[in-house]
Design goal:
The protein is mostly helical. It has helices at about 1-5, 10-15, 20, 35-40, 40-55, 65-75, 85-90, 100-115, 130-155, 180-185, 195-210, 225-235, 240-255, 265-270, 300, 325-330, 390-405, 405-420, 425-435, 455-465, 475-480, 505-510, and strands spanning about 75-80, 280-285, 320, 355-360, 370, 385-390. The chain has 22 helices and 6 strands. It is globular.
């Protein structure tokens, strides 16, 4: 029986309602929802949706990897070897990559089951239109997010496939089989990148039509603004510049009175708030039972500190710290290689560098560490994780506007972000930036990124600074076909390196003849 269930691993992901199979999935208990029971009441549907949100908390997803592994693969992070974690990823070793396949497809299976059950839910009092719209809107948003994360980890973006290496994106599953036999007959192949992105668009259209404008200050629940912001991100990856700009316009109109850019004086405190006021959508870790712990949480991954400004207290490992190029870009001066020793002689007026400071010597040599995630309300290793913040919308619109031929509009959005992040962004500096409209950096000439002396280069530079240790850098270079300037000691050779894509789990390709492994693995 055990051998058979292992062979049906793909099928099991699609059969979450079969309790005999669920024991073989080895899922985190807080993600496990008995869907066959949950879908008989409105309370159960709410619990099932909560279970899908919980899947985002996995270490394979926003609990760590989509942020930390991404910056380890890129040129932002330096692996300290204090615990040995993330070293292989930082060196771009074969197979050292994202591993969210099983978690995401399990969540998608849950989503599909709930979506199928909602129209026939027979409860008293009857389900209202508002309830149904809220449930379905959240589920479509979550499925879109799950599919986009799968697509950007395991496949190329539309039109960006490497000749001879592109084997498609990821399988699309919109129904969950109800029986083992149905599952046996469901062995999908990989859809094209364009097909997956069209599916994500369709889900986001459905979410946008159904979701409410307000989340009552609770950004861990999907809203119209969150769906539109995700739509803008997905369009950016697809190089659909018109829709990227359009959805950014919509987000800024919808969220204008709720989510505003933090100022230079409030930026640091925005990262100590119960929820980040810039978050359009974030993953909430509500209580100690959801604490990922001292080995793999974002706090322990990024810093040895227990509290900001107290280098005498050691808590985490500080496995991934800022690499020299990032520290220089943030405006640090007088630093040793990769922040060794934790010392520096000065900082620029970029307030983002205030969330980087010397760690402790409790785990070895001190380094300059990121303190964006350092324990909510003083509870170690318990932080909400922003997925989309409002500055991303401005920088996405800047990039989209530039590619649409609106350099002036792109510059205006760039300035909005810089005014919120540089304490002394003077009129003289703004005037100097005006010259960027005459040096756009277009057309792009991959695999070489545009220089930071160009408008496009400045937009990407601000994305690097704004989202350092939030997992954007690797994907920005991947979606544009650029080669990252990695240290020569790594095993990364550029955009055509097969290791740009994550390997599909062998257990899946072994049992599904229609599922082709990524090139090189």
């Amino acid at each position: 029986m055990k051998k058979t269930l292992y062979k049906l691993s793909w099928s099991l992901l699609l059969l979450s309602s079969l309790t005999a199979c669920k024991k073989q999935l080895e899922l985190d208990p807080k993600q496990s929802v008995d869907v066959s029971v949950a879908l008989t009441s409105r309370e159960g549907v709410n619990a099932a949706i909560t279970g899908v949100y919980s899947s985002l908390k996995s270490t394979t997803n926003y609990g760590r990897d989509l942020l930390a592994v991404s910056d380890a693969l890129a040129d932002n992070g330096f692996a300290t070897q204090k615990s040995g974690r993330l070293l292989a990823e930082n060196q771009n070793g074969t197979g050292a990559h994202f591993v969210l396949w099983q978690n995401n497809y399990y969540a998608i299976a849950q989503i599909n089951q709930v979506l199928a059950a909602i129209p026939t839910l027979n409860v008293s009092p009857a389900v209202t239109t508002a309830e149904r719209n809220s449930w379905e809107g959240q589920l479509y948003f979550l499925r879109a997010l799950m599919y986009h994360d799968l697509a950007r980890c395991y496949g190329y973006e539309p039109g960006m496939g490497v000749q001879g290496q592109d084997r498609g994106s990821v399988p699309i599953m919109l129904q969950t089989p109800a029986t083992i036999q149905e599952a046996l007959n469901t062995m999908p192949g990989r859809a094209t990148a364009d097909s997956v992105y069209r599916r994500i668009y369709a889900d986001l259209d459905s979410a946008n039509k159904r979701l409410a404008t307000s989340n009552s200050g609770l950004p861990h629940i999907a809203t119209k603004a969150a769906a539109q912001a995700l739509y803008a991100r997905v369009a950016l990856y697809r190089r659909d510049w018109v829709n990227a700009a359009r959805w950014c316009d919509s987000v800024l109109a919808v969220a204008a009175n709720v989510n505003r850019l933090a100022t230079t004086s409030s930026y640091v405190s925005s990262w100590t708030s119960q929820t980040n006021p810039e978050s359009l959508f974030e993953v909430r870790f509500a209580n100690q039972s959801e604490n990922i712990g001292v080995n793999t949480s974002l706090q322990t991954t990024y810093t040895t500190l227990a509290e900001r400004g107290r280098p005498s207290l050691t808590a985490g490992f500080g496995d991934l710290v800022a690499a020299t190029p990032l520290l220089q870009a943030l405006g640090f001066t007088g630093i040793a290689a990769n922040g060794s020793g934790g010392t520096f002689t000065g900082r620029s007026d970029d307030v983002r560098n205030l969330l980087f400071e010397s760690g402790t010597t409790g785990r070895g040599t001190a380094r300059i560490e990121c303190t964006k995630f350092i324990g909510k309300n003083g509870v170690a290793n318990l932080d909400n994780v922003p997925v989309i913040r409002i500055p991303e919308v401005y920088l996405t619109r800047a990039e989209a506007r530039l590619n649409n031929g609106d350099a002036a509009g792109a510059l205006a959005d760039l300035k909005v972000v810089k005014q919120a992040r540089y304490a002394n962004y003077t009129t003289t500096q703004q005037t100097a930036d005006n010259a960027l409209t005459a040096n756009t950096g277009l057309p792009l000439v991959a695999p070489t990124p545009p220089a930071t002396t160009t408008l496009y280069g400045q937009i990407l530079h601000q994305r690097r600074l704004e989202f350092a240790f939030e997992g954007q850098r690797w994907f920005d270079f991947k979606r544009l076909g650029f080669t990252l300037p990695k240290a020569t000691a790594t095993l990364y050779t550029g955009y055509t390196d097969f290791k740009v894509l994550a390997p599909i789990p062998v257990r899946e390709t072994d049992v599904n003849p229609n599922l082709v492994q990524n090139f090189g693995y």
